[in-house]
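Lab notebook, design round three. We kept the backbone fixed and only want residue identities now. Task for the bench partner: fill in a sequence for the structure below.
Input structure tokens:
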């Protein structure tokens, strides 16, 4: 048993799911059973397919706490040529805030609760107790690794681990989703105030009819179609005050007839307004 396998067995005994990494911090390639991603895994190995293969070939989904798997023949060969040990933070009930540079570290020290900290080659890993969705590039130099992700094991670090705070969870929320409204009645039309370019009510009526038709005729990608249509209506009619709450209800009704929920409609409307800064 080499050092990497010994470390992996110790972590697994503590309930931390582990896997070997080859050079470049990458998981091992497909095993014979999954050659050429026959099981459905993607070529970059970071998003595994529906596979029950015991081999270490599917990134975070290969991580295990089973000592028999870790010491099995194919894993034992992987440990012999592994360059590092990785673990699945979410599987261990943890979240890692990966800070890639000095600027990211300075931001974390000002913005996040102190917690257990592990030094990395370029920056630091801040570990919190609790799991959440993983997200890349939530800020310059900042990634979040928890569920469906893996991180290198670099030791226990220093400090006392802190419960995952809402400030970290909020980092994974896209800015466009930070202004949702709950239902059509709470999604008022912008009041505008600019000069009206329409000249005739028929222009607005025709535009709304075309918008309703675009949504109604969508055969796929309904979410995207609804958002694009809302964006188009708001970009043309959202700044002058001609668009009324009744018009918004018409658009929401068309979208809901295609299966969109009121919340989806409200989010799409809020996102379009956010994009156009209305």
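Proposed sequence:
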């Amino acid at each position: 048993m080499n050092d990497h396998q010994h470390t992996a067995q110790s972590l697994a005994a503590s309930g931390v799911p582990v896997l070997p990494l080859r050079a470049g911090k990458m998981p091992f390639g497909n095993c014979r059973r999954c050659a050429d991603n026959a099981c459905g895994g993607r070529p970059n190995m970071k998003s595994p397919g529906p596979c029950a293969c015991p081999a270490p070939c599917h990134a975070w989904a290969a991580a295990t706490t089973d000592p028999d798997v870790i010491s099995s023949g194919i894993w034992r060969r992987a440990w012999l040529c592994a360059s590092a040990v990785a673990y699945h933070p979410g599987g261990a009930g943890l979240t890692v805030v990966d800070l890639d540079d000095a600027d990211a570290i300075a931001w974390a020290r000002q913005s996040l609760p102190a917690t257990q900290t592990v030094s990395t080659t370029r920056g630091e890993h801040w570990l919190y107790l609790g799991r959440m969705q993983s997200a890349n590039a939530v800020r310059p130099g900042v990634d979040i690794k928890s569920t469906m992700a893996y991180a290198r094991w670099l030791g226990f670090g220093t400090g006392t681990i802190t419960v995952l705070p809402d400030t970290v969870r909020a980092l994974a929320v896209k800015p466009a989703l930070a202004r949702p409204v709950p239902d059509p009645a709470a999604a008022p039309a912008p009041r505008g105030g600019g000069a009206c370019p329409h000249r005739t009510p028929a222009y607005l009526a025709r535009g709304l009819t075309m918008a309703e038709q675009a949504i109604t005729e969508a055969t796929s990608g309904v979410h995207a179609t609804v958002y694009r249509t809302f964006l188009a209506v708001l970009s043309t009619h959202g700044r002058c005050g001609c668009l009324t709450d009744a018009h918004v209800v018409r658009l929401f009704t068309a979208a809901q007839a295609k299966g969109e929920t009121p919340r989806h409609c409200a989010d799409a409307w809020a996102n379009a307004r956010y994009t156009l800064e209305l």
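Keep this in mind before ordering anything: The first strand starts at residue 18 and ends at 22.
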